[in-house]
Design a protein that fits this description.
Blueprint (H helix, E strand, L loop, with lengths): L2 E4 L34 H12 L6 E3 L7 H5 L4 H12 L4 E2 L6 E2 L3 H20 L5 E4 L21 H11 L6 E5 L6 H6 L6 E8 L22 E6 L5 H19 L3 E6 L16 H18 L4 E5 L8 H13 L9 H4 L9 H11 L7
Parallel strand pairs: 1-2, 1-5, 5-10, 6-7, 6-9, 7-8, 9-10
Antiparallel strand pairs: 3-4
Bound molecules: ligand 6DK and zinc ion.
Zinc ion binds next to loops.
Length: about 375
């Protein structure tokens, strides 16, 4: 059985503007810099490593198609879609949603192609044409709630794909596992009252957004218990993440028995990421992928669709991502060239306070049926 792989040249053309994080601001003496912290070159470098490593000999290309308005409107409001259309039509684009989410001229087309890429992969995995796959899409999606763009995200790609799986492909239960280091607030918002999509976010506590992602946020109404937040303290590394998967993520998936697992795959929990303070290595991400793959083999015929979220180390993200795709395809081609250097930084033991934070989430798994 095969592993799908999806990339589109336009994903490398997402316009993040100038300036290190927000737009360069001369009044604050922020000197313009060619590479925004979220510059899409980081993801293009991942794609190029997938290509030059030879890994694509073991993968089947999946071709992205733009999501339709109807696809977007399953999870977003008309107002949100029309504002994005309007900003995208401006000659120089503009700021969408919150203050940090740039949308370049024509950015609507790339955002639709990103959401549509997630749909296309899910469609082929659910149909059994692929065992699993990786959609290296951009812009990311997990911060976008129903009614706005936020945190570099225009449309919530994993949710658009989950809604497609539910409404068009007829699945009854889908799980979204979000290992991006930031909280998947948009995904949580979209499925808040809906038990047919289990949403799990493991993230650095309060890294972004500033006021969400608490373990106490569990969904409401019929959806109560079907949103699971696993906030971790800064400094968490491979051991903490692996323990959180063993104690919470995997037991939650086993209890829920989804027919499809969508992974929101960000690599900004990596030890070299500039936007967060976690310590996961390529080997750590490989292990997380392996645990989800083994779980999917037990509960849903191995059906996993990984969809790219964030990750901001142009040096290291490509190797973290490669490790995950290698694991999906069950091949080993390249070693992590940074491993020797990173192993001198320490931090790969489970700390007592990390264990306690994880237990606070583990006790909630019993309510998932
Ligand atoms: N903070 C993501 O990786 C996006 O999750 C992360 C977005 C982080 C934005 C951080 C930020 C501010 C700015 C101004 C004032 C307060 C805080 F969506 C993904 F790409 F996946 O702007
Ligand atoms: Zn992130």
């Amino acid at each position: 059985m095969t592993t799908g792989y999806l990339w589109n040249t336009l994903y490398g053309w997402v316009d993040t503007g100038t300036g290190s994080l927000a737009a360069a601001n001369l009044a604050e003496r922020m000197q313009p810099i060619s590479h925004h912290l979220a510059h899409s070159d980081t993801k293009r470098r991942f794609h190029e490593l997938v290509s030059v490593s030879g890994l694509r000999d073991n993968l089947v290309d999946v071709v992205a198609r733009p999501a339709t308005d109807a696809d977007i409107l399953r999870v977003h409001t008309e107002e949100h879609l029309s504002i994005i259309k309007e900003i995208s039509a401006r000659p120089t684009g503009g700021i969408a949603g919150d203050g940090v989410t740039m949308l370049g001229n024509g950015g609507l087309d790339i955002a639709l192609l990103s959401a549509g890429g997630a749909i296309e992969l899910v469609k082929q995995v659910v149909a059994g044409e692929l065992r699993n796959g990786y959609a290296l899409v951009n812009p990311p999606g997990h911060h976008a709630p129903r009614n706005q763009a936020m945190g570099f995200c225009i449309f919530n790609n994993t949710s658009v794909a989950a809604a497609y799986a539910r409404n068009v492909l007829g699945l009854d239960r889908v799980a979204i596992v979000d290992w991006d280091v930031h909280h998947g607030n948009g995904t949580q918002d979209i499925w808040w009252t809906d038990p047919s999509v289990l949403t799990i976010s493991i993230h650095q506590h309060l890294c972004f957004p500033a006021n969400m992602g608490f373990v106490t946020e569990r969904g409401e109404g019929d959806g109560h218990g079907y949103n699971l937040n696993i906030p971790l303290p800064p400094g968490s590394g491979n051991a903490a993440y692996q323990h959180a998967f063993e104690r919470v993520v995997i037991p939650a998936l086993e209890a829920y028995r989804p027919q499809l697992i969508i992974v929101g795959s960000g690599f900004d929990a990596s030890i070299l990421d500039p936007l967060a303070r976690m310590m996961v290595t390529a080997a750590g991400f490989r292990k997380l992928a392996r645990m989800v793959i083994d779980c999917a083999d037990r509960i849903c015929g191995g059906k996993i669709a990984c969809v790219q979220e964030g990750g901001y180390s142009p040096h290291y993200l490509p190797f973290c991502g490669l490790a995950v795709i290698e694991e999906l395809a069950e091949v080993r081609l390249l070693d992590d060239p940074y491993q020797g250097f990173i192993s001198t930084m320490g931090g790969d033991t489970l700390q007592q306070h990390e264990r306690e934070w994880i237990e606070n989430a583990a006790v909630l798994v019993k309510d998932i049926t």
